[in-house]
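Hi everyone, sorry if this is the wrong subforum. Our group has a chain we'd like a structural model of before ordering constructs, and none of us has done structure prediction before. Sequence below.
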Amino acid sequence: MKLLSVAIPCYNSEAYMAHAIESLLPGGDEIEILIVNDGSKDHTAEIADEYAKKYPGIIRAVHKENGGHGDAVMWGLNAASGLYFRVVDSDDWVDSDVLLHLMNELRQHKADPDPIDLFITDYLYDKTDAVKKHTISYQNVLPQGRAFSWAETGSLHVGQYILMHAATYRRQLLLDSGLQLPKHTFYVDNLYVYIPMLHVHRMMYLHETLYHYYIGREDQSVHENVMIHRIDQQLLVNRLMVTSLDVLSIPEPHQQRYMYSYLEIITAISSIMLILSGTQENLNKRDQLWDFIKEQNPALYKKLSHGLLGRAVRVRTGFGRAIAKCIYRLADKIVGFN
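Answer:
Right subforum, don't worry. Here is the predicted structure as tokens:
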């Protein structure tokens, strides 16, 4: 069995996919690279096949009809055979030296009777026009270099959540979690790091920057204008997060605190994007989102709506919405997520 399977979802990625693939090759025979061609119309399929032919036993090309990023991730997961699994988007890449360090840890712990469910590594916002690149690190909140439980975690602040870029899951945990990502939907990475997290009990953190998250293309899903254009997909993901599990019933207090906080920030982002659009239609959608939460889980609605973020994004006055926009702009400047 391979130590690590890595899925690279690709859609019309001919211009940049090689960088992602090449950065993973130092993993050698213990890594499985799954290039998932999501119905591309350019030369992505041919490039994937060329790599698979050049590196048999390491690289596999998976060809499928277009179903979107989440569907490509699911195809990769279902095709994977490694003990652990992670995703690298086709326009991103990994630090090859850190990858080798991670794989060494996977190797050392592969026979543990109580397996590690999640390996966490730092990641970098590789924003093209940024003078100083912003790294998301967990060194102040997570124990380093050893296995730990939720009870040993500190409070992760806004912008410090465990995103897809930071997560290397035990593959069987992902399969057992019942994870399903909807087709033709952006922002499903939030479901990927939320639903399985309920089943994570043993973790390990390596204070090294493995993942380079490229931000610079105008058509990227995280670009503000693109998010507003695709707001219905963001809202779908938000609603699925609400209905997928009752976060307030999680018995472990640190785990509940983290997962509630993650749901809270996603709901705030949905609301802020609707406010930023400036249309009455989208302001109505914001109210509908909060009405949906109230209907599905009154206790969750009460807690979210009385929190600082909830109060900020639910204001109905023009002045209040202006304040909410300022908060978002400040967070973006500090974190650089758009």
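For your construct planning: Residues 50 and 107 are 29 Å apart (CA to CA). The longest strand covers residues 203-215.
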